[in-house]
């Protein structure tokens, strides 16, 4: 596994970094995959393999229903959502309905298990890293005494934070396991972000949400958070526009875009 790299952002004398958020914000709630770490790419690859394998073997569907899973499908139906919610959302887009569990045939749980196995295999093979701009930004936030939580739909949140060296920055973690244990509604509902704010002891209006998924931006907007930052690492205009439409107050291509001279 690759670990986070990059030098700390240091102050000279009493000068502190200006992190580009409203003065009222005292806590930062970060999504993980695609915002702090490169693992969104690994998730997308694993989902593609899992869905394409399912579609290839599923009977009685049209060629249109069987067309390969695409990056647009990932961004529209899966990104940011819980594992099961993402599967159901994508299958509904193809007019396919599956039971949650089945001992004899295809099911939502079976697709989810296949995807997670593929994800862990890819993660073990290729590793994961924290984006250098994310490391710089969380160091800057830590330097001005802002609290940091990670709020992610991934059930592998703890392992990814450890593998990328980000754990020391994180005061609280609300991941897919916590969401399932507490029965929280997944994004675009704001429940997981509200849980993250509560874990830091701050009201939503004093917290900023950082999200690369439209569903996550919608969750931040719905929760009444003080500021919602959309993070677009796709390099295209469409996703940035969708993030703005979803409720982002600002859209950046790197977290360091927010940093300003003191």
Overview of the molecule:
This protein is of the alpha/beta class and 262 residues long. It has two domains: 27-38 and 129-258, Rossmann fold (3-Layer(aba) Sandwich), CATH 3.40.50.1000; 41-126, DNA polymerase, domain 1. Helix content is 45%, strand content 10%. It has helices at residues 39-57, 63-66, 71-78, 83-93, 108-126, 132-143, 157-164, 176-182, 191-200, 214-222, 237-246; strands spanning 27-30, 147-151, 172-174, 207-211, 227-231, 250-252. Strands 3-2-1-4-5-6 form a six-stranded parallel β-sheet, sandwiched between helices. It is elongated and about 60 Å long. Residues 1-15 have low confidence and may be disordered.
Topology of this structure?
Blueprint (H helix, E strand, L loop, with lengths): L26 E4 L8 H19 L5 H4 L4 H8 L4 H11 L14 H19 L5 H12 L3 E5 L5 H8 L7 E3 L1 H7 L8 H10 L6 E5 L2 H9 L4 E5 L5 H10 L3 E3 L10
Parallel strand pairs: 1-2, 1-4, 2-3, 4-5, 5-6
Helix pairs in contact: 1-5, 3-4, 4-5, 10-11
Per CATH, the superfamily of the largest domain is HAD superfamily/HAD-like
Please tell me how large the radius of gyration is: 19 Å
Strand order of the largest sheet: 3-2-1-4-5-6
The residue ranges in which pLDDT falls below 50 over 5 or more consecutive positions are 1-15
Give the mean pLDDT. Answer: 90
CATH top level class name of the largest domain? Alpha Beta
Count of domain modules: 2
Examine the secondary-structure arrangement and name the CATH architecture of the largest domain. Answer: 3-Layer(aba) Sandwich
Beta-strand share of residues: 5-15%
What's the order of the H and E elements? EHHHHHHEHEHHEHEHE
Coarse morphology: elongated
> What fold name goes in the CATH topology slot of the largest domain?
Rossmann fold
Coarse structural class: alpha/beta
**Tally of individual helices:** 11
Number of strands: 6
**What percent of residues adopt helix (DSSP H or I)?**
40-55%
**Spatial gap, N to C terminus:** 35 Å
For the biggest sheet, the summary is: 6 strands, parallel
